[in-house]
Design a protein that fits this description.
- Chain B: It holds the Pfam family pre-PUA_NIP7.
- Chain B: This is Nucleolar pre-rRNA processing protein NIP7.
- The complex is a heterodimer of chains A (about 325) and B (about 130).
- The model of chain A is unreliable at about 320-335 (pLDDT under 50).
- The termini of chain A are far apart.
- Chain A is flat.
- Chain A has about 325 residues and is mainly alpha-helical.
- In chain A, the strands form three sheets. Chain A has a two-stranded antiparallel ribbon. Chain A has a two-stranded antiparallel ribbon with strand order 3-4.
- Helices cover about 50% and strands about 5% of the residues of chain A.
- By secondary structure, chain B is of the alpha+beta class.
- Chain B has one domain: Nuclear Transport Factor 2, Chain: A (Roll), CATH 3.10.450.
- Chain B is built from six helices and seven strands, in the order βααββαββαβαβα.
- Classes of the chains: A mainly alpha (about 325), B alpha+beta (about 130).
- The interface of A and B includes residues 255 and 256 of A.
Chain lengths: ~325, ~130
Amino acid sequence: MEGHSVEELLAKAERDEAEKLQRITVHKELELEFDLGNLLATDRNPPTAVRSAGPTPEADLRALARDNTQLLINQLWQLPTERVEEALVARLPEPTTRLPREKPVPRPRPLTRWQQFARLKGIRPKKKTNLVWDEVSGQWRRRWGYQRARDDTKEWLIEVPGGADPMEDQFAKRIQAKKERVAKNELNRLRNLARAHKTQLPSAAGMHPTGHQSKEELGRAMQVAKVSTASVGRFQERLPKEKAPRGSGKKRKFQPLFGDFAAEKKSQLELLRVMNSKKPQLDVTRATNKQMREEDQEEAAKRRKMSQKGKMNSGPPGLGGKRKGRQHQGGKRRK
Amino acid sequence: MRPLTEEETRVMFEKIAKYIGENLQLLVDRPDGTYCFRLHNDRVYYVSEKIMKLAANISGDKLVSLGTCFGKFTKTHKFRLHITALDYLAPYAKGFGVAAKSTQDCRKVDPMAIVVFHQADIGEYVRHEETLT
């Protein structure tokens, strides 16, 4: 009996081992191709088992997936490993499959004005050195850019040129000229961009005051000035008699295309029910407006009655009193 | 393509209700599928939800039509019903025709006077071939 059970135990252990091995090893006619850099395994075996499965191939598909994944994991276990912050990590090799482009090829941009001119004249970019020897500072400095070799705004001594006004600030003149050059460059860059994207720069047509601007130009300039604040014109006060601008409301928002179909159906049925009920529904806004208007009219009628009574009371006691009273009331009423 | 707003739905339902009355809720709430109204280029289309989801994949400027066109909204936001809606309105109709007399005259007229003209659509000659001799 005992011998039997020991033999049985051994046989069982052997069977377990074989089963484990069977689970790990997978037999394939054609070997899989692995691209471990992308964690990719390509199986070129013809899927005959799956095809002949019948109407529900799920079980076969799952078995196939399991087998292929097992092979991939086997490959991964053979990679060199390293320790990264108490975790065992396999170092993947470089990916071998070339993935297709994510985004479409960029379309060719139109040439900038300079490029067109250069192409026309046949000008080729001359190769220039980036660094130039600067005598003044005694070191190699950039040709352009930060701490450039000959920066005329950084000179400490400027002679007043022959025909210039002695009181003019030459330093400020040079700084101003540089600012203008930078602004011009920026403008040209934006113009090139606008040409590339086929849009227009926002025109500053009426923005510089000339004294000969039309009403529309002035209006447009005023609108732009109003909106050119940090809050995009939201807290700008209007002049006492200025009217609010038209068309400055919010853009309309619609329901999403496939929102909740059940909710849509419910709201439509509710609308139909209200329409068919043949009872006039209470429109709250109209009701409140009507109420407010009635109250205002009552107030106005009461005030008029009070002023009429006041007139009649102050009438009899003397002419002077009457005149005074009348003028006073008249002034009040006009107001 | 977008769903109709409350105001647009109300205007459209009022128009359709003139023809089919309370049966309109049978159009809104169908047992055999979810159908919805969608607006595209000022035209109202009655389309099943499945087809509408497919049509959503077509860009707006390339989409010509989807489902059945019920009618369109004019520039002044009035709803004009089109003949293409007939197939959906006919089963629920309360009697199609053009009034021969005004409402007031209809009340005072004798019992044998003609009050409504039945105008046939183009397919009626084919549909009712047997009954029309």
